[in-house]
């Protein structure tokens, strides 16, 4: 398992717990378009609408919506992400990059503060 995937699993587990506490919070992972896929799987994903460059996690925390891209320390965004991230941000949807689970949880907590959910952390 890639370290970024391990990091994301930790964040997903935390988000699952938040969804139990606050049923208005929702999230999903955006399936990678190319990672470790056979040519057949790449074609299947493309037909399904999976496109490269989207961040790893989409989090809905009404009235906010935001993305988190998980990266291991010292890794950079993919070639497609500099084209996709600004388009998302043009829609007033923040895109954050977290280099470890603690950084991702800090982002989530900041967004919880902004949405008035800081009372149950």
Q: What would you say this structure looks like, in words?
A:
44% of the residues lie in helices and 17% in strands. With 121 residues, it is an alpha+beta fold. The protein has one domain (3-116): Trna Endonuclease, Chain: A, domain 1 (3-Layer(aba) Sandwich). The chain has a four-stranded mixed sheet with strand order 1-2-3-4. The termini are far apart. The mean pLDDT is 90.
Query: Under the CATH scheme, which architecture would be assigned?
Result: 3-Layer(aba) Sandwich
CATH topology annotation? Trna Endonuclease, Chain: A, domain 1
Range of strand content: 15-25%
Our count of domains comes out at: 1
Topology readout:
Blueprint: H1 3-21, E1 26-29, H2 39-48, E2 57-61, E3 64-70, H3 81-90, E4 95-98, H4 101-114
Parallel strand pairs: 3-4
Antiparallel strand pairs: 1-2, 2-3
């Amino acid at each position: 398992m890639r370290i970024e995937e391990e990091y994301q699993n930790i964040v997903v587990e935390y988000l699952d717990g938040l969804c139990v506490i606050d049923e208005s919070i929702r999230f999903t992972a955006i399936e990678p378009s190319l990672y470790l896929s056979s040519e057949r799987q790449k074609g299947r994903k493309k037909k399904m609408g999976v496109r490269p460059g989207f961040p790893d996690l989409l989090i809905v925390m009404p009235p906010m919506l935001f993305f988190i891209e998980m990266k291991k320390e010292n890794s950079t965004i993919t070639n497609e992400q500099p084209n996709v991230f600004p388009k998302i941000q043009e829609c007033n949807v923040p895109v954050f990059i977290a280099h470890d689970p603690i950084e991702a949880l800090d982002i989530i907590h900041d967004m919880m503060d902004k949405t008035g959910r800081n009372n149950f952390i």
